[in-house]
């Protein structure tokens, strides 16, 4: 296209370029001026503005009295809102939350300290603090220079999740909330709400064949835990020849070298993979039950000093740290990933897995569990937990996959003990 | 969030605001309907519309189902609520027809009926429809239907629910009358409640946690004060910004569907009322035209107002001065028994019974009509057909009035006194003025040295009275004074004669033209003055002139002020007159149609009936609607037909495959069904060539491989499959098909349902061989994807 256009004389081209640059910078400077003005208009203010313009235009064009009246009223309240914007809004806000991690049902104590950092008196302003979906509004009193004001409140937690708190916004706004000049302070602090957990017996009691997470059954050529001696075969590392025993044999007349054999030590690592597609769960509550089960297991694993990793949909924690896994429990949301895909991702991200928990709901069948488990090495111990409130809790062992049918969270200790005991 | 049937908390508050605002807007129809049934029906519709959305949400049905529910409610409850009189309360065929009729044509009927319209009849369908629509839309926009409104900007989330009541208000104004129904309700209350709603919606996530209550109280108080100030200021501001007289409403723009011109000029037949020759059967001089009881003696009874002169006759016009700004549209509109006619004056109640001399389309009325009740046997037809023109105060029954018809009327008689110091009104009709130009010289000479228009007109009137002579042209020597008020009769043969001779017809016609010529808007009225007996005969009929004064009202210029009753007989006609008179009397250029002529009326009535049948009184709109409907409907019908054909063909194919004779054929059919479904969805699966297992790979579906294996094992296995195996295989395939569909978007699914790709390479190989034969060894043939 550009080729077919008649070429402009260079002077003109340069002039045009300069003009467009000027226009751009003009636009930018206007943007700089307008942006703060537009920023003062709150959503309700925009609506009022639209109502005012539409009403007045309809009234003028069609000589309709009623829309004109509605539009005029909207215009008047917008005008009356302007004087409220005058004044300064600089405040310093400090937000303290204790504790930041909490089990659902408990409360978080929060305190909000507002200070006037300026040398003048601060007129009363509003302070909005978003807490989760809600916005807490505080009417701050006028503050003298350097004065402080403290508001305390508690955040009640009801269910698992993350409650973002902040940032605090000091507003100088009209009474109807159409316009406001805002000063935002601080960032978002998160309160992580964990699901209610049930106490479990030690996973080590029967669940793990590799006690204390030290050695596995696998024989290794080079490790710490001594297993046995065997005869030397060509290719063995000479470092592992047990000289003393070899010498004894030689003394007995057998020209044979003996080498040491070891047991592979492995750090026990429990990996949890949770189905995240909503249609695989009988109800959203089942998903919550599963996450509560995960949290309980992670809590127990922490006591047993077993590392724990968790993959729920697109959220994963693979550090092995129980705290991190529990945080991931808090952040888990339904998605579209699916158990099989998530398990494959977990197998790649946590290769040291020794114990695998797969969690699914009524929509997850045995085959899906199997397909998910395939991603892991065969020596990984697998357990599937299927949350189905409609059936009594029970455990079934099919091949190398143990499936625990869990009706409710309270049944978890029993089912675990019964299936593994 | 599990929904309850009845909304709670925030949702209930929003629904309440929506209902209140919509009711306020609906109240704008108050002057349009008589009674309050319109409000009841509208509110019921509103609530049911909301309930439909709620029910669909509660049952977790898709949102479209709310629309279908609302449609069902509209159809099922519509007849009970709106059509109790026409069509019956049950949703029978007739009632549905009435419902559809009212939806399609009711708007036109509403607009062409002079308000208020009958508030218990079939026009209630309109508020019913509007109520349901607003409830439905409001519910959906509010998201009490569970709409996920997270992606749209906050301002839109706040403002969108305001849209339905605002649209309703606009619609009510458009369909309403020419003055605001109530500034308090649709203006102040609507504005304040809407603004409060926006404010509350803006704050709904905010909870005040402050320990200090004083701030909250103060803000609330200031908020209320702001709204109060806004309401108080907005009233005068809106008055200053808008002009109610120019209020643009649909009623004003609708072309009235009655063509008054066809009824001709009743003034042309004036001589039927005058002293006629003995034995003339058409003469009505001594015949009773009507009996009027209850009105005071001397009341002017108006037959017709004639406001347009075309050079031949004065006639009633449809739209005399539409081109002029500020003029009320002049139109004969349908009326119910109550007429919104704001005029001050003396109230008159009268009962009119038409006598045997009256057989015409014109409805004799008094003053400015307020209420009209037909009482005779024919009252249903008359009440349905009667039209009234506010501007000329003229009533009309296009299908005709008969002797014996009677009616009660309530009217207000405005003051119609004309004084010399009035200034002429603004609505001078340019066409009449042009038509009166042939009288310019006469007007100039007759008005003498008067300069002010009103002055000149009254001077002319006085001149006519002083110099004019009266003759009905009956006596032998007066036959030269013939009837008519065409230009020549009024000019050469009347005003320009030395001796001006004529009767009411010529005098009133000439007077009105002269008045227009000197700049005073004037029109001719044919009517009667009520005698003391209350029995109006032809002898009481007169024609007088009405002139408009500055405030827009029309004042009477009585016949006696411009016509004398002296007979010309004392003076023998002058020679010039004689010679001119001895010529054959020139026939009227166009024989003016007489309204009172029986035969003409019969023909007219027949014609009118045809017109009425055609579209409920409308002439243009129904045809227009039909064409529009045809243009819209034809492609829709074609598309639907196509869709039905495709879906039907696929269903037939599926049924045939499922019902194949041998179970193994059924299993093969099920597999083909799965492959076809995948191809419909746009997957590139080859047919005719690859084995089922190869196809399964191309199918790209978790269960496909398993299904292919099962099919193979059934078809090639050692034992023929049983009925159960085929049935369970079909179930599995159905599940897989649903799965495939679930992965597609809605649009893809629709396209798949209508896709023709699976018919493409099928014909050759059906019926499908069940066992491999040499003929069936595949040649590799791939169907291009898509």
UniProtKB/TrEMBL annotation, chain A:
- The highest taxon in the source lineage is Bacteria
Q: Which UniProt keywords apply?
A: Membrane, Transmembrane, Transmembrane helix
Give me the segments passing through the membrane: 44-62, 69-86
| The keyword Transmembrane is annotated on this UniProt entry | yes
Q: Quote the PANTHER family the UniProt record gives.
A: SLR1927 PROTEIN (PTHR34351:SF1), SLR1927 PROTEIN-RELATED (PTHR34351)
Question: What is the protein name given in its UniProt record?
Answer: DUF58 domain-containing protein
- What is the species of this protein? Nocardioides eburneus
UniProtKB/TrEMBL annotation, chain B:
Q: Compositional bias (Pro residues) spans?
A: 584-594
Q: Which InterPro entries match?
A: Bact_TGase-like, Papain-like_cys_pep_sf, Transglutaminase-like
Name listed for the protein in its UniProt record: Transglutaminase-like domain-containing protein
Protein's organism = Nocardioides eburneus
What the entry lists under Gene3D superfamilies is as follows:
3.10.620.30
Keyword list, A-Z: Membrane, Transmembrane, Transmembrane helix
Where is the region Disordered?
560-615
Q: Where is the Transglutaminase-like domain?
A: 441-555
User: What are the transmembrane regions?
Assistant: 12-29, 35-57, 64-81, 125-146, 158-177, 183-200, 221-241, 624-648
């Amino acid at each position: 296209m550009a080729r077919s256009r008649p070429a402009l004389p260079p002077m003109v081209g340069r002039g045009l370029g300069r003009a467009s640059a000027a226009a751009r910078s003009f636009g930018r400077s206007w943007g700089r001026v307008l942006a703060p003005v537009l920023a003062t208009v709150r959503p309700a203010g925009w609506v009022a503005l639209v109502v005012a313009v539409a009403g007045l235009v309809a009234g003028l064009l069609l000589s309709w009295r009623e829309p004109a009246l509605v539009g005029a009223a909207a215009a008047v309240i917008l005008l009356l809102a302007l004087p409220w914007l005058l004044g300064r809004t600089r405040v310093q806000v400090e937000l303290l939350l204790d504790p930041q991690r909490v089990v659902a049902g408990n409360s978080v104590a929060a305190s909000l300290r507002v200070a006037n950092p300026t040398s003048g008196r601060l007129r009363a302003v509003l302070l909005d603090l978003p807490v989760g979906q809600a916005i807490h509004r505080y009417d701050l009193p006028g503050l003298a220079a350097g004065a402080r004001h403290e508001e305390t409140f508690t955040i009640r937690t009801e269910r698992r999740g993350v409650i973002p708190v902040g940032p605090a916004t000091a507003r100088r706004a009209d009474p109807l909330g159409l316009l406001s000049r805002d000063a935002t302070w601080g960032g978002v602090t998160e309160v992580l709400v964990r699901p209610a957990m049930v106490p479990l017996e030690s996973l080590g009691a029967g669940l793990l064949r590799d006690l204390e997470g030290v050695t596995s059954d696998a024989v290794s050529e080079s490790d710490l835990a001594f297993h046995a001696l065997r005869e030397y075969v060509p290719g063995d590392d000479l470092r592992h020849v047990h000289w003393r025993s070899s010498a004894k044999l030689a003394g007995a007349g057998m020209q044979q070298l003996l080498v040491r054999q070891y047991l592979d030590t492995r750090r026990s690592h429990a990996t949890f993979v949770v189905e995240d597609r909503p249609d695989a769960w009988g109800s959203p509550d089942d998903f919550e039950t599963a996450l509560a089960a995960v949290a309980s297991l992670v809590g127990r694993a922490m006591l047993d000093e077993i590392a724990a990793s968790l993959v729920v949909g697109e959220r994963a924690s693979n550090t092995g740290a129980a705290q991190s896994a529990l945080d991931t429990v808090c952040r888990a949301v339904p998605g579209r990933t699916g158990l099989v895909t998530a398990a494959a991702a977990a197998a790649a991200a946590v290769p040291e897995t020794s114990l695998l928990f797969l969690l699914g709901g009524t929509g997850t069948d045995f085959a899906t569990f199997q397909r998910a488990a395939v991603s892991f090495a065969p020596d990984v111990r697998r357990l599937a937990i299927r949350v189905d409130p409609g059936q009594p809790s029970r455990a079934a062992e099919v091949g190398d996959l143990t499936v625990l049918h869990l009706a409710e969270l309270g049944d978890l200790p029993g089912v675990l003990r019964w299936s593994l005991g | 969030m599990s929904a309850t049937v009845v909304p709670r908390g925030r949702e209930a508050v929003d629904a309440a605001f929506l209902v209140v605002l919509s009711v306020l807007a609906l109240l704008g129809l108050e002057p349009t309907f008589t009674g309050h049934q319109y409000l009841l029906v509208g509110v019921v519709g509103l609530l049911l519309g909301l309930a439909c959305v709620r029910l669909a949400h509660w049952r977790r049905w898709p949102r479209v189902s709310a629309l279908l529910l609302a449609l069902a409610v509209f159809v099922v409850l519509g007849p009970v609520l709106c059509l109790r009189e026409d069509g019956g309360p049950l949703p029978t065929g007739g009632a549905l027809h009435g419902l559809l009729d009212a939806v399609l044509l009711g708007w036109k009927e509403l607009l062409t009926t002079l308000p208020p319209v009958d508030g218990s009849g079939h026009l209630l369908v309109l508020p019913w429809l509007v109520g349901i629509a607003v409830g439905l839309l409001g519910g959906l926009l509010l998201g009490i239907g569970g709409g996920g409104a997270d992606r749209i900007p906050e301002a839109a989330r706040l403002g969108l629910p305001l849209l339905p009541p605002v649209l309703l208000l606009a619609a009510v104004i458009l369909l309403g009358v020419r003055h605001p129904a109530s500034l308090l309700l649709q203006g102040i209350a609507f504005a304040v409640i809407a603004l409060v709603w926006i404010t509350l919606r803006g704050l709904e996530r905010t909870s005040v946690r402050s320990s200090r209550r004083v701030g909250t109280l103060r803000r609330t108080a200031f908020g209320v004060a702001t709204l109060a100030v806004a309401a108080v200021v907005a009233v005068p501001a809106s008055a200053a910004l808008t002009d109610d007289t120019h209020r643009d409403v649909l009623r004003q723009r609708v072309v009235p569907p009655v063509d008054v011109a066809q009824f001709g000029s009743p003034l042309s037949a004036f001589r039927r009322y005058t002293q006629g020759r003995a034995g003339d059967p058409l003469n009505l001089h001594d015949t009773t035209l009507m009996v009027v009881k209850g009105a005071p003696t001397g009341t002017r009874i108006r037959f017709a107002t004639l406001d347009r002169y075309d050079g031949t006759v004065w006639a009633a016009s449809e739209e005399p001065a539409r081109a002029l700004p500020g003029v009320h549209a002049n139109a004969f509109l349908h009326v119910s028994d109550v007429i919104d006619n704001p005029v001050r004056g003396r109230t008159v109640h009268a009962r009119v019974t038409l006598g045997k001399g009256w057989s015409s389309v014109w409805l004799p009325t008094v003053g400015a009509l307020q209420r009209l009740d037909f009482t005779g046997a024919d009252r249903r037809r008359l009440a349905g057909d009667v039209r009234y023109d506010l501007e000329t105060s003229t009533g009309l029954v296009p299908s005709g009035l008969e002797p014996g018809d009677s009616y009660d009327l309530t009217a207000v008689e405005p003051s119609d006194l004309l004084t010399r110091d009035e200034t002429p009104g603004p609505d001078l009709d340019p066409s009449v003025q042009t038509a009166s130009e042939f009288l310019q010289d006469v007007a100039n000479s007759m008005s003498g040295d008067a300069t002010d228009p009103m002055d000149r007109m009254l001077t002319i009137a006085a001149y006519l009275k002083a110099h004019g002579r009266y003759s009905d042209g009956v006596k032998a020597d007066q036959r030269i004074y013939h009837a008519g008020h065409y230009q020549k009769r009024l000019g050469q043969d009347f005003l320009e004669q030395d001796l001006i001779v004529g009767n009411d017809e010529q005098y009133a016609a000439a007077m009105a033209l002269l008045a227009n010529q000197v700049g005073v808007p004037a029109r001719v009225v044919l009517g009667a003055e009520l005698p003391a007996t209350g029995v109006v005969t032809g002898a009481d009929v007169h024609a007088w002139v009405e002139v408009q004064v500055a405030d827009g009202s029309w004042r009477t210029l009585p016949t006696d002020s411009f016509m004398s009753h002296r007979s010309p007989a004392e003076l023998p006609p002058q020679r010039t007159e004689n010679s001119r008179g001895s010529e054959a009397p020139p026939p009227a250029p166009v024989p003016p149609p007489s309204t009172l002529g029986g035969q003409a009326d019969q023909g007219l009535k027949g014609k009118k009936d045809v017109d009425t049948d055609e579209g409920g009184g409308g002439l243009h709109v129904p045809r227009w609607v039909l064409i529009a409907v045809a243009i819209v409907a034809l492609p829709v019908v074609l598309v639907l037909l196509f869709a039905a054909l495709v879906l039907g063909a696929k269903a037939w194919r599926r049924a045939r495959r499922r019902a194949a004779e041998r179970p193994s054929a059924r299993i093969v059919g099920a597999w083909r069904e799965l492959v076809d479904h995948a191809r419909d969805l746009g997957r590139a699966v080859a047919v005719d060539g690859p084995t089922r297992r190869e196809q399964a790979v191309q199918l790209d579906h978790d269960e496909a491989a398993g299904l292919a294996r099962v099919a193979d094992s059934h078809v090639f296995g050692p034992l023929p499959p049983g009925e159960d195996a085929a049935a369970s295989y079909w179930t599995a395939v159905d599940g897989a098909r649903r799965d495939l569909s679930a992965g597609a978007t809605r649009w893809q699914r629709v396209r798949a349902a209508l896709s023709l790709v699976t018919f493409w390479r099928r014909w050759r190989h059906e019926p499908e061989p069940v066992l491999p034969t040499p003929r069936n060894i595949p040649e590799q043939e791939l169907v291009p994807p898509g």
